[in-house]
Amino acid sequence: MDTQSREHSRKRLVMGNWKMHGNQAANTVLLDGLCAGVTAVPNCDVAVCVPFPYLGQANASLQGSGISWGAQDVSRHEQGAYTGEVAAAMLADFGCAWVLAGHSERRAMHGETDQLVADKAAAALSAGLTPVVCVGETLDEQEAGRTKDVISRQLAPVLALGASSLARIVLAYEPVWAIGTGLTATPDQAQEVHAFIRARLAELGVPQVRILYGGSVKASNAASLFAMPDIDGALVGGASLVAEEFLRIAAA
Ligand code: 13P
After folding, report:
1. For 34-57, what is the mean pLDDT?
2. Alpha carbon of 129 to those of 5, 39, 134: distances in Å?
3. Domains present along the chain, CATH in parentheses
4. Helix runs in 84-132, H state only
5. 141 counts as catalytic
6. Which residues are CB-contacts of 111 (< 8 A; sequence separation ≥ 6)?
7. Smallest Cα–Cα separation from 135: which of 167, 166, 106?
8. How many helices (H) and strands (E) does the chain have?
9. What is the per-residue pLDDT for 184?
10. What is the helix (H) or strand (E) element at residue 212, kind and residue range?
11. Cα(216)–Cα(182) distance, rounded to whole angstroms?
């Protein structure tokens, strides 16, 4: 498939990751702002991944808005004695369409392994959710020229899920050194990694999988990133907490 037809076959997706921010009052302002403004960005899928306690609020506020919602983590288990864990079916029960799997903060702070991340993606798929599997290298790994090795290692168990599963997931490339730092990969740097990931997907017959970029995406840099043929949207942290800024990214 050539670059142009690829671009046309994949609608852009801009997803907010609120991380551990918010409260009911602030969320109301943010969600109302998103609902009011989203009609101005019809050509982009818009979604938010909120903390678990606010899934009910998202479910109530975003019904019929055209904005979809999801969670930031999921258990690999279906149900049972797993205190503190949240099952994919519970997320589906709150209307979630998406769930992040393997965000770098979970890999780094909670020891999530590549295999666990793939297991979480599989659990999400079983419940009818779309997992957004995050990959990305640290600064040390990047400086050592190991970016593609790291991405390959992280992707291996996910790719092993097979083409029919892969066709139903989203990938997000989030270089760890660009998250929350104000440092963004240049469009060319990001494109190089996205093209690398795309090539791996193409080998498996699923070149159409959406690949988002994340790491200090803002309204001011979104357009240049989105101009790249293999960047299909963004996973946005800090800038997703202000409705106008987030929607400006979606409009870019
Ligand atoms: P920032 O946009 O705040 O850099 O966060 C990126 C991210 O981690 C999204 O998942």
Report:
1. 96
2. 27, 24, 15
3. 13-251 (3.20.20.70)
4. 88-93, 104-109, 114-126
5. no
6. none
7. 106
8. 12, 8
9. 86
10. strand 210-214
11. 5
Answer for the pair 204, 159: CB distance below 8 angstroms, yes or no: yes
Query: Given 112, 137, 174, 194, which residue is catalytic?
Result: 174
CA–centroid distance, residue 18 to ligand 1 (Å): 9
Q: Which two tokens stand for residue 114?
A: 């590549």
What is the C-alpha to C-alpha distance for residues 110 and 76, in angstroms, rounded to an integer? 14
The structure tokens 């392994």 sit at 113
With residue 112 as reference, give the H or E element that holds it: none
Task: Indicate the pTM of the whole model.
Answer: 0.95
Mean pLDDT (whole number) for 164-184: 94
Which of 83, 58, 62 minimizes the C-alpha distance to 72?
58
The two structure tokens encoding residue 32 = 């109302």
SS3 103: coil
Residue 147 has pLDDT above 70, yes or no: yes
Distance of alpha carbon 225 from alpha carbon 21, whole angstroms = 26
Q: Where are the alpha helices (DSSP H) in 127-227?
A: 139-143, 147-159, 163-166, 187-203, 219-226
Nearest residue by C-alpha to atom 5 in ligand 1: 237
- What percent of the chain has pLDDT above 70? 96
Task: Compute the distance from residue 44 Cα to the ligand 1 centre, in Å.
Answer: 19
The owner of tokens 């979606």 is: 250
